[in-house]
Amino acid sequence: MRAIILQHAIYEGPGYILSWLHEQGFATDICFVYKEDTPLPNILSASLLIVLGGPMSVYDEETYPWLKAEKELIKQAIDNNIPTLGICFGAQLIASIYGSKVSQATNKAIGWFPMKTEEGQTKKHFHFPENFTSLFWHIDEFELPENAICLASSPISPNQAFQINNNVIGVQFHPHMTPYLLQGMINNASLDLTNDPYVQPAQQLLSAPASFFVQSNQLIDDIISYLLLKHKDKHR
């Protein structure tokens, strides 16, 4: 099994995802798409695609010319039914591929905030915990793709997670977070920590209870396991 991970900034790595994949016996190929002249991998050789977060916006193609090729790669993965998980900017990329609007959020959100699962899901959809808390770190937000179902929401930003068919899940928050990864984000993106209503200071971010990390990481286990199981069932 081979997982391809698309990374957009040196300080926004896969975090907990990497250790989970290695425990499950995956070979991992981390593609640093933000580095000049980085070749994109052969997506058809992948069993799983993970698209991580990043400080850029989906409409910044002039500033980041590699964005266009990356979007084409993600679309190729989805069109070939490769299980795909998008996190924050990664979810925004998927939404934009499907023609949904991605724009500056009404409320900039950086901090540990509660969410709830959305109603209207069926047995074929992934089910989030009824209430849970995870790390938000986003300035932009996506509108729900037309062919997607909303899986989780928050009063701060209503579209927090979506599912398309059985092979694509996008989340606006960061369930793969670890204390080490969080410290790196704070060190490298401290200018994001402005005095806004839904932006928590660095000390508050770092003093989150261990249960927040544990619950978030368990969600990663469940999401990826779900995507892989649905893919396996489809090819039986």
Automatic annotation (TrEMBL):
* CDD domains assigned to the protein according to its UniProt record, in alphabetical order: GATase1_1 (cd01741)
Species the sequence originates in: Commensalibacter intestini
Domain Glutamine amidotransferase: residue ranges: 33-179
Q: Name one Pfam family in it.
A: GATase
Please give the GO cellular component terms listed in this UniProt entry: cytosol
InterPro entries reported for this sequence? ChyE-like, Class_I_gatase-like, GATASE
PANTHER family, per database record: GLUTAMINE AMIDOTRANSFERASE YLR126C-RELATED
Name of the protein described by the UniProt record = Glutamine amidotransferase domain-containing protein
What lineage, starting at the top, does this entry show? Answer: Bacteria, Pseudomonadati, Pseudomonadota, Alphaproteobacteria, Acetobacterales
Q: Which PROSITE patterns match?
A: GATASE_TYPE_1
